[in-house]
Amino acid sequence: MFWVNRALYLSRILFVLVTLLLWPLIFVLNFNSYPLTNPQTIFEFDYQARQQVLRNTYAYPNIPLARLFQNKAQIPIGKFEHNLTALIDPNNYFFGFHPREILTGNANAVKFPFVALPVFLLGFFGLSTYRHRKAVSIFIIVGVILLSLLANFDGYDFFLYFPLAYVFLSGQKRIPPVYFLAALPFAVIELIRQIIIFGPK
Fold first, then answer.
1. I want to staple 183 with a disulfide (CB 3.0 to 4.6 A). Which of 21, 90, 115, 140 is the partner?
2. What is the largest CA-CA distance in the chain?
3. For residue 4, is pLDDT > 80?
4. Sorting pLDDT into bands at 50, 70 and 90, what band is 105?
5. Contact 157, 27 (CB under 8 A)
6. SS3 of 183, please?
7. Residue spans of alpha helices (H) in 31-160
8. 92: exposed, middle or buried (Cβ count in 10 Å: 0-12, 13-18, 19+)
9. DSSP state of 132
C-alpha cells in the first residue's frame, strides 16, 4: 500500500511539473521568432484591410448602407473580436488551435498538455472558493482585453501563464490521484513533441 501511495504522489508531482514547464519551455525555445519588439495595435494602419472594406461596399445597393455595414471602424473591431475569441478559446492553450491553426503571425504552440484540461476546468469552476480569486480573475480579464488590442498577441500572451498556473494548481487538488498516474505519460509525450517541433534544428 505504501508503494501505491508513493507512486500516486510522485505521479501528481511529475504531472504538475511537466504541465507547468511546457509553456515556459516553448516560450524560451521560440523566443527569437516572437515579435516582441515594437508591438503593433489593432488600430495601426492596414492598407489591405482598408482595400477590402472598399471592395465590399460595392455589394450594397446604396452608399448609406455600404457605410453602415462596411466601414473602416470594422477593421479594429474585427481584429479585436478575432483576438478575443482566440484568447478565450481552450483550443489555443491545449491543442495549438488545431485543426484551425492561425496561418500567419502565430506559432500555434501547445501551452499545456491536453490531459491537463480537466484540471483547469475544475480549477475554474472552483475559482469562487479561492483566497486570491478576485486578483486572479481581474488579472485574467484585464490581460485578455489588453492582449486583444494587439495586432499579434503571440508571445505576449505568456502574460497569462501566471494566473492560469494558479488556476491549475488550485484545480489539481480536486482531482483523484489515480488520474495523474494515467495522464502522466500523455503529458510527457506532449512535452517531448513540442520540444521536437520548436527545439534547435
1. 115
2. 79
3. no
4. confident
5. no
6. helix
7. 47-57, 63-69, 74-87, 90-94, 117-125, 133-148
8. buried
9. T
Best mean pLDDT range from 11-25, 40-54, 126-140: 11-25
144 located within any domain: yes
Is residue 23 within 8 Å of 161, Cβ to Cβ?
Answer: yes
Global confidence as pTM: 0.84
Our count of domains for the chain comes to: 1
* Integer CA distances (angstroms), 54 to 60, 77, 80, 148, in order: 11, 16, 20, 25
| Residue range of the domain that includes 103 | 2-40+75-198
- Kindly list the distances between the CA atom of residue 196 and the CA atoms of 20, 27, 47, 114, 157, in Å, as whole numbers in the listed order: 18, 14, 37, 17, 22
The partner residues of 150 in beta bridges, in order of sequence, read 41
Measure Cα distances from 100 to 92, 156, 162, 181 in Å.
10, 21, 26, 31
> What pLDDT, in 10s, does the model give residues 56-103?
666 666 666 656 666 666 777 888 999 999 999 999 999 988 877 886
Beta bridge partners of 41: 150
CA 94 and chain centroid, separation: 8
What's the pLDDT at 101? 81
Measured between alpha carbons, how far is 7 from 53 in angstroms, rounded to an integer? 60
What the block records as the C-alpha cell of 199 is: 527545439
Angstrom distance (rounded) from CA 192 to CA 194: 6
CB 70 within 8 A of CB 50: no
